[in-house]
Specification:
Layout: E1 11-14, E2 17-20, H1 26-32, H2 38-56, H3 63-72, H4 83-94, E3 101-103, E4 109-111, E5 116-117, H5 146-156
Helix pairs in contact: 3-4
């Protein structure tokens, strides 16, 4: 019986597993094969797990639910902007999705409910971020909006106000 769908004299399947013509077991060879350096493997694993954690915590707000939360966190009337302005901004930037991420051509990302950009406001894996909000971009992707609102208030307090978006 052959290992592959076609006839091959190189690999055959026997009772002891798949063996090559030289008698070396494929399983023992595969177990010694490494995917890459341990550091790269750990980075990939951490990235995968953080992505899974973030996606499992994602929340898509309803319009009224978001308005109540933004009001509770103090955005109503902040710098002259009403709840309707904030809800409209969240709808058109992320569709009320806290886990929304948009990738830009320059390698930066727009993150979370208000699509806050990593180039200036938060830190991701890129070392050249200004990180003016002093937080990781992943902090903007969770349903708890406290960090997001702190950053939004900092952005809107700048000279462009809501015009930043």
């Amino acid at each position: 019986m052959n290992c592959l769908p076609f006839r091959s004299s190189v690999l055959t399947l026997g009772a002891g597993g798949c063996t090559s013509a030289t008698g070396m077991k494929a399983r023992s060879w595969a177990s010694r094969r490494q995917l890459g350096s341990p550091r790269v493997t750990w980075l990939a694993l951490i990235s995968l797990l953080s992505g899974l954690l973030t996606s499992s915590q994602a929340k898509v707000f309803s319009r009224c639910e978001l308005a109540k939360e933004l009001n509770r966190l103090g955005l109503n009337g902040f710098r002259g902007y009403e709840l309707a302005d904030w809800v409209c901004l969240a709808y058109f930037t992320s569709g009320f999705n806290t886990a929304a991420v948009d990738h830009e051509a320059d390698g930066s990302t727009n993150n979370g409910l208000f699509q806050i950009n990593s180039r200036k406001w938060c830190r991701n894996l890129a070392p050249d971020s200004s990180n003016l909000c002093r937080m990781y971009c992943s902090d903007l992707l969770i349903p708890d909006l406290k960090n997001t609102i702190v950053c939004v208030m900092k952005i809107v307090s700048g000279p462009k106000g809501l015009g930043y978006w």
